[in-house]
Amino acid sequence: MSFDPVPRPGTPPHHPIFGVRLARPHIDSIFGALYPYSKLLSVSQLESGKSYNNRIYSLSVGQSSTSSTAPPETRELILKVNGQFFGSDKIQNEVACLRILDQYCSHLPVPRIIAWSDDGRTITIPSWDEDYTSRQKVPIPIEDKSAQQPGWILMTRLPGEAVSSLTLDDTAMSSIGAQLAEMVTSWRLNVPHTSYCGNLLFHSSDSDNASIVDFDLRHEEARPAGAGDAFIVRGLLGDGIPPSDPITSVLDLHRIRLQAKLRELQTSNTYAPNRDLAPQISDFITNSLPKLYPGPAASDSFIFTHFDLSPRNTLVTIPTDPDGKPGTPEITGLIDLEFSGFFPPSHEFVNDYVDNGGDWCEVAYAAYLKRLAEMEVATPLDGIDWEEWMVEHKLGVLMDNIAPWWLPGGFSKEEVGEKLKGCREVVEGILEEFRR
User: Fold this and answer.
1) CA gap 84, 20 in Å, rounded
2) Is the separation of the CB atoms in 263 and 285 below 8 Å?
3) Which overall architecture, per CATH, does domain 163-200+246-435 show?
C-alpha cells in the first residue's frame, strides 16, 4: 500500500505527508524494475520535521561488480514521494524544471532525474539521448490495485548538508550568498524566457491544443513531443490553482492569485473570523488592481525562477586543509524545485522577503544581492524600480495574509484567532495604502 492508515508519530493531520508513505515491498518493486541486476542495500526515511510537502527516502544501491574481489559500487539516490494534497502536476513540474536546467545549465549542482511516476502505478524511465526520444513505461506490481497511489520522483542524491543545519561564520555565509547569486544568474541568462507565467506540464499530443508547445527541448520541431521534453506553462502549484488558460501578464497573475485567496477566505472555516474582509478585497481586485498595471500585457516576459531558494534547500560541503581547519564552503546542491517555473523577475525576491523572510542571515543575503548586481541582475536594492518593488512586495504580503497557508499549523483555536487578528490588520492596512 502507498498510504499508511496509521500516521507516523509527530506528523500533524494538516501536513501534506500525514499518513503518506511507501512500504518497503513497494520500493523494492520500483527498484527491481529499474535495477534488475543490482541490490537495494538500504532504505532510510528522512526524519520527521525535515520535509513538509513530500515523504523522502534515501536509497543505497549496490551495483554489480566485474570482479569477485572488488567491492560493489554504491550509488546514493533520493525517492521523493508526493504529499497527500498533490497530484501529477507537481511531479511533472519538477521533472520539467530539472530537465530544463540539465539542458541549459548543466554545470549547476541540481539533481538528475532517473525515473518518475505521476500516477503511482507506472514508471517512466527516460533515456536522455541526443534526440530525447528513448523512454519506456513499466507497470509497478501493486498488490492492492484499488488503493490510491502517490506519485514520486527518483533522482540522484547530491553531496553536502543543508545550510540551515550548520553553524557558519559571517565569512562563510557571505561566500555562500555570492555563490548562490552566480547560480541564479546562470539560469536567468541561459534559460529562455517565456510569454506565459506559471508552472509546467508535459505536452500531450492527445489534448485539444496538441499543436501548442510553450517550452521545447527537442532538436527537431517536427518530431512529436513526448513526456519529459516538451511542456506547456499552465497553473500555479504554490497557490493550488489548477492548469487552465495561459497567464500572459503580471496583472493576470495577481488577479488570479488574489481571486484564489478570496475563495479560500470565503469557503474555509479556518479563515471564517476574517470573512467580512471579502467585499473590500473584491473591490480592490476589480477597481484598484488594474490601475497598478496599466501597461500592455504583451510587454510582460517571465523568467525561470526557483521560488524557494532557502538555506534548507541549499547544500554545501566544507573542505579542510591538511591541519584539519575548515575552508570556504562550496555549494554542492540546489534542491526542491517542485514549485519552480516561469514568473516575473521580481518574484524570486518577493518570495524571499515574504514566505521565506528571515531564512537567510543578513550577511548572506546582502552578499547575494551585491553579487547579483555585479553580474547585472536587477534586485530590489539595485535595478528594480523602487515603486514597482513596493507594489510587488505589498501584494505578496497581502496575499500571504488573506488566507495564510500556515494556519492552523499546529496552533490552538485561541492562537489561530490571535494570528487572524494580526492578518486582518495587515490586510486592512495594505488595502488602505493602495486606496491612498
Assistant:
1) 7
2) no
3) Alpha-Beta Complex (3.90)
The burial class, CB within 10 Å (0-12 / 13-18 / 19+), for 377 is: buried
Inter-axis angle of helices 88-104 and 170-190, nearest 10: 90
- Residue 401 banded pLDDT, cuts 50, 70, 90: very high
Helix (H) or strand (E) holding 254: helix 250-267
**Main-chain phi, psi angles of 102, to 5 degrees:** -65, -35
What pLDDT digit, counting tens, does each position of 292-344 carry?
A: 988 655 456 899 999 999 999 999 999 988 887 888 999 999 999 999 999 99
The grid coordinates of residue 364 equal: 548572506
Say which DSSP state 8 is in. Answer: P
For residues 287 and 255, the answer to whether their CB atoms sit within 8 Å is: no
Query: What residues form DSSP beta bridges with 194?
Result: 302
Q: Are 34 and 77 a contacting pair, CB within 8 Å?
A: no
Q: Where are the domains of the chain?
A: 24-85+112-156, 163-200+246-435
The answer to whether 389 and 379 are in contact (CB under 8 A) is no
Residue 191 Ramachandran class (φ > 0 left, ψ -120 to 50 alpha, else beta): beta
Cis peptide bond prior to 273, omega within 30° of 0: no
